[in-house]
Amino acid sequence: MSETVPMSEGETGVDLLETLNTLTAKALSGQRPTRDEALAVLRSEDDDLMDVIAVAFRVRRFYFAKRVKLNFLVNLKSGLCPEDCFYCSQRRGSGAGILKYSWLGPEEAAAVAATGISGGARRVCLVASGRGPSERDIDRVTAVIGAIKAKHPEVEVCACLGLLSDDQAARLRAAGAYAYNHNLNTAGQRYSEICTTHTYEDRIDTVRRAKHAGLSPCSGIIAGMGERDEDLVEVALALRELTPDSVPVNFLIPFQGTPLSTQWNLTPRHCLRILAMVRFVCPDAEVRLAAGREIHLGSMQPLALYLANSIFLGDYLTSEGQEGHQDLKMIAEAGFTVEGQQSTTPMAAGGAERVVLRQRGAGTGLPPNA
Ligand code: SF4
After folding, report:
1. Which of the chain's ends, N or C, has fewer CB atoms near its CB within 10 Å?
2. Rounded to the nearest whole angstrom, what is the distance from the C-alpha of residue 180 to the centroid of ligand 1?
3. Is the pTM of this model over 0.85?
């Protein structure tokens, strides 16, 4: 392990091993880490990555054992949003070739949700584009919640509809919604760099309103939008103050046709450090590995399970994710258990078909596999 982690210019580096031990002790006893301690995780060297993951895994295991909660997204209304969130493929003026449609009906939405539930999802996330819902939109969403809960009373329903009034939050709760998602996305001081049509304070207000109405607060971040490490620490600490029950960690999907389309800033190793940092800052929150995991983590995805205790199953709002059965396979192969199931999903029986006899390359007329 390297001896020190460089901090800001002019500051002395910190001892990483000592800091990781401090972070772990604080996380296990519910204490808030300092900015510098959280920053040290993001500033650690690639050579120290396995040490960071091993230590953060102790925290993850303490609170969530080896369970992985599956969440399933249903995009109730896609595209054509009047807001201008720079990262979003559904923003006004977006040139991304995404699906655009108006509200799904309750039965259609419930049928889509049922697919995710049969795949193992314990939570269904109902999402609609827009600044915030109208009263009629709340009627629509409560009808969807009713249709889902009628067939799957055990499933948690989370709504994600934008800025919310107190009354709307209360109506959603009364209709059976369990949680409300509204991400802080990035540090407050740079919010105007990623959106000009609403503010960071608007977002904080909505998270508070949802919590006040008895909805489980879900609020997270999007990494990879050109922010500094300090900004990621800032937003993680701000989230801790809001005490969300779940914290989705998204990695920017730089959609063509959006202002952030060229922001390919993340490496798989840094994504893992970000997840570890969030785990230390919000140790007992459900840290969810969210959008962008496939394209940014690549073959390192399974390592993220040692840090996050929750993932989205299957597709995202406007882009496709890894196949659902591959998500389940990844969880089983890494030795984790899908929440709500008794044991790790056994590997597919009949291994014989997994052995493919070579029919290309040397000794054949076909080019080799390289
Ligand atoms: S409000 Fe939501 S749907 Fe609209 S642009 Fe922002 S993130 Fe996208």
Report:
1. C
2. 15
3. yes
